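Researcher: I'm comparing several assemblies side by side, and this is the next one on my list. It has 1444 residues spread over four chains. Same procedure as the others: predict the full complex and return the structure.
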Amino acid sequence: MPGNTIGQAFTLTSWGESHGAAIGGVLDGVPPGISLDINKVQKALDRRKPGGQHGLTSARQESDQIHILSGLYDGKTLGTPLSFLIYNKDQRSGDYDAFKNIYRPGHADYSYTMKYGHVDHRGGGRASARETATRVAAGEIARQILQLSFPTLQITAAVIQMGTQKLNASWSGHSYRENPLFCPEEETIQSWIAYLNDIKSQGRSVGALIEVYVKNLPAGLGEPVYDKLDADLAKALMSINAVKGVEIGDGFGCIAAENGYDELSAGTPSKHLTNKAGGIVGGISTGQDIICRVALKPTSSTLQSRKTLTKDEIPVDVSITGRHDPCVGIRAVPIVEGMVSLIIMDHFLRWQGQCGTTFRK
Amino acid sequence: MPGNTIGQAFTLTSWGESHGAAIGGVLDGVPPGISLDINKVQKALDRRKPGGQHGLTSARQESDQIHILSGLYDGKTLGTPLSFLIYNKDQRSGDYDAFKNIYRPGHADYSYTMKYGHVDHRGGGRASARETATRVAAGEIARQILQLSFPTLQITAAVIQMGTQKLNASWSGHSYRENPLFCPEEETIQSWIAYLNDIKSQGRSVGALIEVYVKNLPAGLGEPVYDKLDADLAKALMSINAVKGVEIGDGFGCIAAENGYDELSAGTPSKHLTNKAGGIVGGISTGQDIICRVALKPTSSTLQSRKTLTKDEIPVDVSITGRHDPCVGIRAVPIVEGMVSLIIMDHFLRWQGQCGTTFRK
Amino acid sequence: MPGNTIGQAFTLTSWGESHGAAIGGVLDGVPPGISLDINKVQKALDRRKPGGQHGLTSARQESDQIHILSGLYDGKTLGTPLSFLIYNKDQRSGDYDAFKNIYRPGHADYSYTMKYGHVDHRGGGRASARETATRVAAGEIARQILQLSFPTLQITAAVIQMGTQKLNASWSGHSYRENPLFCPEEETIQSWIAYLNDIKSQGRSVGALIEVYVKNLPAGLGEPVYDKLDADLAKALMSINAVKGVEIGDGFGCIAAENGYDELSAGTPSKHLTNKAGGIVGGISTGQDIICRVALKPTSSTLQSRKTLTKDEIPVDVSITGRHDPCVGIRAVPIVEGMVSLIIMDHFLRWQGQCGTTFRK
Amino acid sequence: MPGNTIGQAFTLTSWGESHGAAIGGVLDGVPPGISLDINKVQKALDRRKPGGQHGLTSARQESDQIHILSGLYDGKTLGTPLSFLIYNKDQRSGDYDAFKNIYRPGHADYSYTMKYGHVDHRGGGRASARETATRVAAGEIARQILQLSFPTLQITAAVIQMGTQKLNASWSGHSYRENPLFCPEEETIQSWIAYLNDIKSQGRSVGALIEVYVKNLPAGLGEPVYDKLDADLAKALMSINAVKGVEIGDGFGCIAAENGYDELSAGTPSKHLTNKAGGIVGGISTGQDIICRVALKPTSSTLQSRKTLTKDEIPVDVSITGRHDPCVGIRAVPIVEGMVSLIIMDHFLRWQGQCGTTFRK
């Protein structure tokens, strides 16, 4: 399969350039007869929507209205492909004319040109984070389906570090009040807003650390030895724009630690005393919380002047004047939740295919 | 596809339990007519072989002799599936009888039982790191094929941190003298050996940080938006036993950094002035060094007593007396190289399929 | 993968119900930088369009206008997913209200209900032949790309039997004057039209035999032992609505024949004296014409009254009064060409991936 | 995926050349905890075994003993890959030295050479029907697993035409007494044996028509619109050596027929009055018998002299003196049953993944 489909049993095939007519996706393998709440899908898209967040993220006014074109009849899934699209309305392609023949540093202009030769330079084209809207929509659909089988399932992400700013205490995956920075610590929100406004006013940008918890998922999901649940999560998360690192459980912290195991106990709901493993051992879920952290690099489009090359390899200085987020990591929170939902859904159907109750004899 | 096949155009299907008759793999999509040096494949397996390394890793005497069963005729690949196997000789299954009904903490006994019901408890069965020998063999075959098209290609991994011990200086991916700890810094080897002997004598274990460089790979490999080169590397590396984190380029270090981009310049071979991105932007290689780091947790099988449950959920204390590595991370170096080689090979064939020179018009 | 994607290196993911908002498809793995002639894609759709053909096929007025939503910029392919859709305009869903709770014999109402529980009954929903428009559009795009590498390639299908009516002489795959019955024999067209009008006026229907030739394709395409070129063609053709049989070369005729081989000779362009094999031996193309025949059953929607069940399993008699084709086989000609084009394209990219010239040493 | 893996949820990856060390396969996606009867797998292999059948098929003495290397512990499946191999013992490669530089007409020597350049000429290498032993073994394992969920399931094939010889009456898929010709009509066996001995003594060969029935499979299996159950069966059957045609239900007979539908009725177990469709409508099983027919060409290796080319394209005459079957179709009966079993098994797991009872709400 070429690279625009993710999943094995529950698949998302995604398409669309940032400034083309539309972006969209096709979900296949959707279980039939399930009532979907499309308003909630729209709400998930709105959470990711740039500009709706106190001016702290990109000012582009995307309407991001989802249109379901197939796979749904009378409000319920048909089991056939569910196709959806989102039109690209506020395209302002002219903003990008100046960059048509320039490789913008930190963007994929150079590597895309090396691979494809012919590229759509407008807003990054296919390499734009605009593409991630399809991940959010598809992920929310996956989550709704999962919830039918696992009513207490929770998939929650938050920003736990933004640039140099950390939380006062560690977060444990609990739900939190919606806020523009996806900060799970109520008392920290205002200082982060001040920090980010400062960054923005200086035309700078910073990275972010996002943490995601999956709670109340049963043990047994994951397909060793290559499609381990953690391996598939790592891929799904690393495929998000600007992500440069992924860790599970104690992650990089385990290098200098000792006793890299979690003792088992009959007295706890999860049957384990600790959760250094982050809920996955041997590539299979243990029934404990699944915990991942994702590192995102600072936005490349800052206001500083920088050295680059034209497509004819003439050195030039360039400074980006278009819209930008001072911290792309913020917007990645719903995307992370979406990708985790897609992977869990895919593994649930794969588990059910191989291990469905009919067989345990 | 179920979970024991990796790759799309160049695939490894792996099989085998630690204490079954054998382990092995099937490579499909192998280009035809290529002379393979099977001695080098054997040598790669020997590098990973436990016990051959100054007594610092597991004492199990695996012969790990590779047998090629198909796909090779007259020393050259046929383009048909290349099947290989390695017999499990030193099985000593009796070592594991005591653990037949116990979930060993940190091992996959619990999660495998939750998924499959019926498990092969001997030495971890399919969850054992023994399975990784197939990755090393397949990876070396991939590397040999890649080398024909990219004669200067280098794929080199090293241990850059072991427990609390770091290198004196950062490593830049250069080749180094073979040594039992895969330590790339000559003057550090002896102190690491002393450190590890100390850990071992106390029945403890520590984690490790492995870094891998891919040098002299052209720009243009990677299949956005899901099969990005970094996403596929993250999956392949996270699928290795004991790995808990993966990062590319500046990785987690980029969170608090600024200017998350690399300027371009005509004056350098790689056309970039820095390499914060780790050689991959937008999911496609830039022609710069590809740089990944992988965190491995400490071996779970240490000599301390620990709490656990029997399969009937009776609490017991257990202490592992079998063979073990004080630092599994060491043995992972050839495995990391193998997985990276497999992914690069797969993406090379995928690139050639879609973008082969016939089409650039 | 679920069932709505075909191909491995060049994939079509298809979606849409007959009376939903739209139908469409996503092509992935498209080689970049290729100029596409969208007018020709539209023309291919028009060839398949019911009602445009002398009133001999279904009277539904589908506009079938293709909209390209991504993957094309400045008239050339980007190498990113090419998404297209066709709106369903003349939906007249009311026509189908009477059949909402009835299993129409010969249609997929019963089997779809058994599988999915919840179905879109309008016009057959996903089971409608309307879906095949996406195959025609995608196939024409594949053909245009193939033509760049193989300028003399021809993929031509024709109706060689319609009900009891056969051609006077065997057809050899040559191109022929466009006519509403896709009949390759000029002198036979009028008698077939008379025959079909007769069938139609009586509310009856007949089946058809379609033959397809691929000319001027080089030897070497096909992926044994399962993705043989003939096996993939058989699947692609059998997946077309109403198809009940597929044969290659001498096909079923070879059972009672002898000498089931083609002698080789230096004196002919194809290096073979005969072509009983139909251009594929061992699952790989020989460079001769590829020849397949496809049997299509008579349209199920005829005017006769017939026995069936309601969804509550009450016996009823039903007679279909909606639009119908007296011979669906006719419309299948462009669909057959489309599916063959998709399979050849996929195998071309797969061949190039594994066997690209770099490797033949 | 390259071409040596079949299935999506239950996969067989096959490997091996006719005269290499061994042939074998890897089954992945196997449900865990299932007791397998390996003796029955061996018995299935023996049914296919050439030479064991009254001297009517190839005289090669293959021992065809199956060795299970993984995935089975204590007699029960682990849910991990089940690897098996069969050594090639009676290799007599010398028989083929004379053909090393000659394209044998009707064999894949020419097309394999065009694709791969470097080929294993001995006995056809990968193109040999020897490869099909893995299909039979894997298919028997699939059948045993299916039988647990569908105790009355029957998958039975028979030869219904051999050369010019047909049965006296049509066969309805019932089981029949084992006989060397897989002839389901007791009174016909002796005349067929006489006919075939005659063919053999003259060094000639004939084709065969095999019919296969699947009885007592529930409605609902199949994955439209490309992985329709009939489409996947067509591919699986067409991928068998020497197969040139596949039809379902009335197949090619429906071209000139009318009323191409089966009426429904409450009074029959299958809810249908007839079965023209062959048990599959819209690509999904109806619960009726699934009926396919497969045409196999005459063995290419007959004793007549024939024209061909050397690999240097020098014309020569060649006559094959090695072992051969006068009718390869006979041996294909267990292979056909095996392939049908694999496809049904794969679709069962796919159905269970998407439509498992948890979801029908």
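Model: For your comparison table: Chain B touches chain D through 48 residues (CB under 8 Å).
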